[in-house]
Amino acid sequence: MGLFDRSKKRGPAAQDGTAEQFFEQGKQSFGQENYAAAAQAFEASLRLAGDVPSAYFLLGASRFRLGDSAGALAPLSRCVELVPDHAEAHNALGMTLGRLDRHDEADIHLARAAYLGHVQAPGTLAAMDMDYCRNCAAPVNYSSGPDPADIVIVSAAVGWSCASCGAVSCGRCASDGGRSPMDPRCPRCGRDVDVLTK
Ligand SMILES: [Zn+2]
Ligand SMILES: [Zn+2]
Q1: What is the CA(142)–ligand 1 centre distance, in A?
Q2: pLDDT per position as a tens digit, 108-134
Q3: What is the whole-number distance in angstroms between the Cα of residue 196 and the centre of ligand 2?
Q4: For the residues of 165-180, what is the DSSP string, one character each?
Q5: Considering the entire predicted model, what is its pTM?
């Protein structure tokens, strides 16, 4: 048995084909930047063989490129549910949520994409004055400077950087899960950390 169950065939119709054939058609259309045709083909493929993560991802990516952010949401969410370490899908989901003005959720998925090694996600975060925790993948914010208020009480959203090992961490990880909010430390090497700035 391959990626798709070949036994599940549709009845005779104008668009007869197997899930795999529709999937290949979709990839071809996607490659030709014909995203409407690609979306239709991935929809047909998923109707025949549900829960194929790559088909959900490409359906979401096709709809995103068509400007259908609301439509991209469900297939991309399903893809990261099925494959939690799918960096491309987290990145696309983050971009989609951003377009829908759901910024807090967008930040979480962009940070997760960056944590998983997505090439563009760190730049997207940096453009928003953000980075991500190397320990837990949470999104963190740059501070405008070493604001004493940030240093006295560690907030989860403030990022910290370690001069010794270079790791960036979130407030939660730097304060050991909130157990030492006055004394942030690098979760990787245990040394002192500085408030993350540009
Ligand atoms: Zn963290
Ligand atoms: Zn360190």
Answers
A1: 14
A2: 999 999 999 999 999 999 999 999 999
A3: 13
A4: T--EE-HHHHTTTTT-
A5: 0.86
